[in-house]
Amino acid sequence: MTSDGRVGPGIYFWMEGAYDRILAIGWYKQSLAENRYKDDKSVDCVLIYVTLTAEDNEVLDLENRTISEKLGKLSLEKKVKPNERNKQKYLLGFFISELEKEMKIKFKIVLVKVAAPKEQYCEYPMRFMGAPLCCVARNNDCITMNRIEMVKGI
């Protein structure tokens, strides 16, 4: 399922690491508590492990200092405030689209830090690690599924 999250449409994956599973389960628990699955036939927790493949120039790292400074400058110019989520999403989409035009490339993957699940759903050391890194696959062709894990007892 694609999501229209922080950087627009795509399939959002947690970056592989010590906390990927914890973050995924935490996000599931939070979404379940927020009733986001009310229209779904099944509300089972399923973790999907993938490999994302793209050429270096097809990956946009929004955490790169140069890129994030350009984005920050644009947000100040456009007067987008921290609490204006819809404007932020629009600005990010615009920024990515303009970069693609400038570089004459379509980004298949975007790397971006996103909010961790709330503390009551996930034990993630945000204070020490900062926001977790997310990989957004904007093109299904870059996804190879490795394995699926059904999580029981949640």
Derived from helix and strand composition plus strand pairing, the structural class reads alpha+beta
Biggest sheet: strands, sense, closure? Answer: 5 strands, mixed
Kindly, what is the distance between the CA atoms of the first and last residues, rounded to a whole number of angstroms? 21 Å
- For the biggest β-sheet, the strand order reads 1-2-6-5-4
Q: Helical proportion?
A: 25-40%
Globular, elongated, flat, extended or rod-shaped: what is the shape?
globular
How many β-strands, per DSSP?
7
Assembly form of the protein: single chain
Share of residues in strands: 25-35%
Q: Stretches where pLDDT falls below 50 for ≥5 residues?
A: none
Task: Please provide the ordered H/E string of secondary-structure elements.
Answer: EEHEEHHEHEE
Number of helical runs?
A: 4
* Rg (C-alpha, Å): 16 Å
Overall pLDDT confidence: 93
Describe the 3D structure.
The structure is a single chain. With 154 residues, this protein is α+β, with helices and mostly antiparallel strands. It has a domain at 3-62 and 107-151. It is built from four helices and seven strands; from the N terminus they run ββαββααβαββ. It has helices at residues 20-33, 65-77, 85-103, 126-129, and strands spanning 3-5, 8-14, 45-52, 59-61, 109-113, 133-137, 143-151. The strands form two sheets. A five-stranded mixed β-sheet has the order 1-2-6-5-4. β1 (3-5) and β2 (8-14) form a beta hairpin. The chain is globular, with a radius of gyration of 16 Å.
